[in-house]
Amino acid sequence: MNxxxxxxxxxxxxxxxxxxxxxxxxxxxRIGCSLASLKVTASKIGCTRTPKEAADFRRGFHIPxxxxxxxxxxxxxxxxxxxECAEILGLLTGQSSGNE
Length: 100
What we know:
By secondary structure, the protein is mostly helical. It has helices at about 5-20, 25-30, 35-45, 50-60, 65-75, 80-90. It contains six helices and no strands. The longest helix has 13 residues, at about 5-20. Residues about 95-100 have low confidence and may be disordered.
């Protein structure tokens, strides 16, 4: 971006991006800053994702609390990949495994 965004416009773009679960790289590109700068700004305005939310976002699916222990056992002991564990536990029903 050629024109520098004012702080209010920047804050709105960051908040909207986090609410819509957009990738952080996309939000940073839209406001024309580095990923680190985006994370600092998001932290200051209090809209960062919790570690569980961030992991769910990277994974592409949510693990319910009642299946979390089984999921991690399959991952660590069974040596399955994340998507395979989700399929075994029935977390990907209604989705094809090719969808992101």
